Amino acid sequence: MAETTTPAAPQDSTLSPALAPTAFTFGDPEPALNQSLYDYMGITRMSDYYEPPISWPGLAKTLRSSAHHGSAIALKRNMLARLLKTTPLMSRQVFSGLVFDFLTFGNAFFGRTKSRLGSLLRVHHEMAMFTRVGVDPGTYWALPDGGGDMLQGYGNAEKLPGGSVYQLAEPDPAQNIYGSPDYLSALQSAWLNESATLFRRRYYVNGTHAGYILYITDPLHEQMDMESLRQAMKDSKGPGNFRNLLLYAPGGKGDGKGLQLIHTAEAAAKDEFFKIKSVSRDDVLAAHRVPPQLIGLVPETTGGFGSAKEAMGVFYELEVVPMEQKFMEVNEFMGEEVIAFDRPSWADLAAAAGPVIR
């Protein structure tokens, strides 16, 4: 039997389509925070009432986006609630809810219930999330079925009894129908702070690396080899934000190795996290004008933040007292004193830190 020799196939620089150089990625990037809240579009009229100029459900969600943002609002609410002189007309719980609305949305709606003889029976809390200012002056509407959705609530609004609601609003230079909170300038920083935290969590769950490039220069003789690698990378990928790249370049130039695993942005991901958290935290605290030692921050320097008692006294005089004066404006609408505040014993500590103009 004659032996036949098959001639070697000539070397061809043109690769078959199945084994051509290949590069692909998988896994779309996931945003850490999927909100578009800061779209200041103006006041929208919905037949009988106006919609707020900024999303109130979005502001409510933002309370949970940053520990510093939520803590600063809670501190002011707790201080006002603690100093309130309670009366049978309004409980501390009702007042706390009204303060929370005012600090979160820049609006608080006080409802009053009168007897048949016209005397004041009680003051209740109309939740700002579900209350709207009417087109007719002095009217207010409740949205029981869709306070968080403009279109869902439209058509289900109920007009509140005339003269039963008082709106306490933080002034807004752009319009005079609704108030706006004074921390709007720090919203982007609060969202950035949350995005950094969510990114760090995914970075940790992903194995403390931010993705890699698998670089193959050795020719693969079987398409099954490439498919096996592709499937293995897909099965082992971490959560969103971290994208891996498989780069197959037969005969490509490397460091002499046929298979390389190249990590990307590992060190930078660690360093930037702490910088972003620190800068965004300072922005939020500056917008709220809250001393850092009052919300439990640990100083980064040996000098510390100074005396917490003196900071409390100054904070009381510059922030709490003006808010007390705003809330006491409600007394004129109610016809009697329903809101009054005690002066705390530690308020005089502000004098130790310097003169304060009242």
Structural summary, described in words:
This protein is an alpha+beta fold and 358 residues long. The protein has a domain at 44-183. It contains 9 helices and 12 strands. The protein has helices at residues 56-62, 67-83, 92-105, 150-153, 187-205, 223-235, 266-288, 308-327, 330-334, and strands at residues 22-25, 44-46, 49-51, 107-114, 120-126, 131-133, 140-142, 158-159, 165-169, 212-216, 245-248, 259-263. The strands form 4 sheets. A 4-stranded mixed beta sheet has the order 1-11-10-12, with no helix packed on it. A hairpin with a 2-residue loop joins strand 2 and strand 3 (49-51).
Compose a concise summary of this entry:
Helix content is 34%, strand content 15%. The chain has helices spanning 56-62, 67-83, 92-105, 150-153, 187-205, 223-235, 266-288, 308-327, 330-334, and strands at 22-25, 44-46, 49-51, 107-114, 120-126, 131-133, 140-142, 158-159, 165-169, 212-216, 245-248, 259-263.
Jot down its keywords:
358 residues, 3-stranded antiparallel sheet, disordered N terminus, 9 helices, 4-stranded mixed sheet
